[in-house]
Amino acid sequence: MSTRDLLNMALRNLLKRKLRTFLTVLGVVIGTASIVVMVSIGIGMNESFARQLEDWGSLQVIDVYSPNGGGGHYMMEEEGSSGPQNKGKQVKLDGAAVDSFRQIAGVEAVSPIKSLYLMIGSGKLVADANFIGLDPATMEAMGYKIEDGRALSGEDVKAIVVGGGVEFYDPKLNWEMRMNSEPPEIELIGEKIDVTFDWGYGTRHADKSVKPFKFEVVGTMPADGNNGWSVIMPLKEVEKIEKAQKEWEKKSHGSSGGNNQKRSKEYEQVMVKVDDIKNVQVVQQQIKDMGYRASSLTDQLEAMKETTKMLRMVLGAIGAISLVVAAIGITNTMVMAIYERTREIGIMKVIGASLRDIKLLFLTEAAFIGFAGGIVGVGVSFVTSKLVNFVAMQHGSDMTSSIPLWLYLGSIAFATVIGVLSGYLPAKRAMKLSALTAIKTE
């Protein structure tokens, strides 16, 4: 029997009993839609977690710190060493460490980080903000989001990017007046502004000996992001300002700044950008094995996923139960078909149909039921997913349903396989029928 004849005969047999076929397919539709929607809610939860964390920064960035939490060094202990080569060595977060991070497979960009809390002035208005110094060429790679203008580039020197949450105010107003007045709107992009460590800047208490540093604002960041209250500038400029501040403190107060000169070339933090989120945990572990403290947002993402793992398993199990019920329905339909078509099976054997043809005929009918149910089921799940997302949006919830392409295709294939498996035993039963006995059956 040719494949074409086999398909035509299987389709004709199903259409002869339209109501039974429809009800059986409906069971598969419900089962497929249930499992797809349930799994999609779990996927949507994970994607929601990822979106929330991306507001804080890039999921592909690893933050590296010195083992003792500062810019100092740490003596590796044998028990915590990743290998003999690290035993007894001092681990420092310095230029050599930065170069070693760049050599790790999967690392896309590396930048030391230095922070200072400084004053910023534009005309008669001032603001205070956390200044983050980094390699300007790596700013975009490190996941800093730009709202207006552009990010820093490798050619930038006297340029900064200001967070949208940095609030300017008139320094001549007292605290109560500032709190009761709306922050003034100011257009910063393209403006030349002052940056200083003089906290009296803009008032009559300003120190005339402190000369502000001039920078051009080339971009702004969203106010609601993790860096909304920060200012990004080239690392070398932050180091210049820090050096000038220490010299000023030494002249004004006789203080050396309390920093050991030996530690001056060590960094408080290093950011490492990995080329793929799948490699973050591997690279992070390699950095830890080198003796440094390392963390990333993927740690929190994995913790969130683990917290909801049981819920996702329960949702998937509920959908799977529906599909198991549908599989029982397919088996019942095929068994009933054998009882009703016993004489037909006997005639097929007498006229020369092989046992393989008879087996394939029933398996094809079962596969048709599974495939049709899978196709309609993914259509129903698509509509249901959109409805779930609409309701979630109306209630301000970020927990949505997400159905990737692989889930659509996988559910159709799975439903088809369930159909074939459900029809296997009935097909074997049809093969075992005696031809003469089957012909005599009315």
Distance between the termini: 26 Å
Mean pLDDT: 81
Quaternary organisation: single chain
The biggest sheet amounts to: 6 strands, mixed, barrel
Number of domains: 2
- SS strand fraction: 15-25%
Shape assignment: elongated
Mind telling me the C-alpha Rg?
34 Å
| Uncertain stretches | 71-88, 257-263
Count of individual beta strands: 12
Task: Tell me the helix content.
Answer: 40-55%
- Secondary-structure element sequence? HHEEEHEEEEHEEEHEHEHHHHHH
The tally of helices reads 12
How do the strands of the widest beta sheet line up side by side?
4-5-10-7-9-8
Which structural class best describes the helix and strand composition? alpha+beta
Model description:
The protein is an alpha+beta fold. The protein has two domains: 3-54 and 307-440, no CATH class; 113-266, no CATH class. It is built from twelve helices and twelve strands. The strands form two sheets. Strands 4-5-10-7-9-8 form a six-stranded mixed beta barrel. A hairpin with a 2-residue loop joins strand 4 and strand 5 (125-134). The longest helix has 40 residues, at 355-394. The protein is elongated and about 110 Å long. The two termini are 26 Å apart. Mean pLDDT is 81; it is low at 71-88 and 257-263.
Question: What would you say about this model in short?
Answer:
This protein has 442 residues and is of the alpha+beta class. It has helices at 3-16, 18-54, 95-102, 175-179, 235-253, 280-289, 297-307, 309-340, 342-350, 355-394, 405-432, 435-440, and strands at 61-65, 73-75, 90-92, 107-122, 125-134, 148-149, 159-163, 192-196, 213-221, 230-234, 269-274, 293-296. The protein is built from twelve helices and twelve strands.
